[in-house]
Amino acid sequence: MRSLRTSSLLRGLALFGLLFAAPAAGEEREGEAEAKPGAARAAEELSAGDVAADPARYYGQQVSVRAEVERVANPHVFTLDEDRIGASPDVLVLLPRPDASVVRDGATVTVTGEVRRFDWIELRRDYEWFDLDPGLRIELESRPVIVATSVRRDEDDGAE
Prior knowledge:
Blueprint: H1 2-21, E1 44-46, H2 48-53, E2 62-74, E3 77-80, E4 91-94, E5 108-116, H3 120-126, H4 134-140, E6 145-153
Parallel strand pairs: 1-2, 4-6
Antiparallel strand pairs: 2-3, 2-5, 3-4, 5-6
């Protein structure tokens, strides 16, 4: 009987300690991750070179990349210059809602979106407008893909 009371007392003290050690509503403990279940995470800001050099690290993540438009393949597809000599290939961007006034060769843009692996079948399934001529498809298929949720052109980029 005595061990049952001791056990109950210890459980009560442990629960009491947990309640008062926990942060108040809306507070976080130092060093805790900011992301909470169900909360939207802000896009991580990167260079195109970061994504090009280690794309697997960013697959499935929202990123924000500021870079120069290297080449516009069609209204929905363009590449970002990764700016590293002899490094990885440029980053491919898919733009579900194209905007020709923003995306032009040589323009400096900030692209926000999800990084994906280039998988021709999946991309065609998810975006029926996605199409490339066979030569360009072969050239681009080793590149990381950002499916853009927004593209902003820098005000002072001077591209025409």
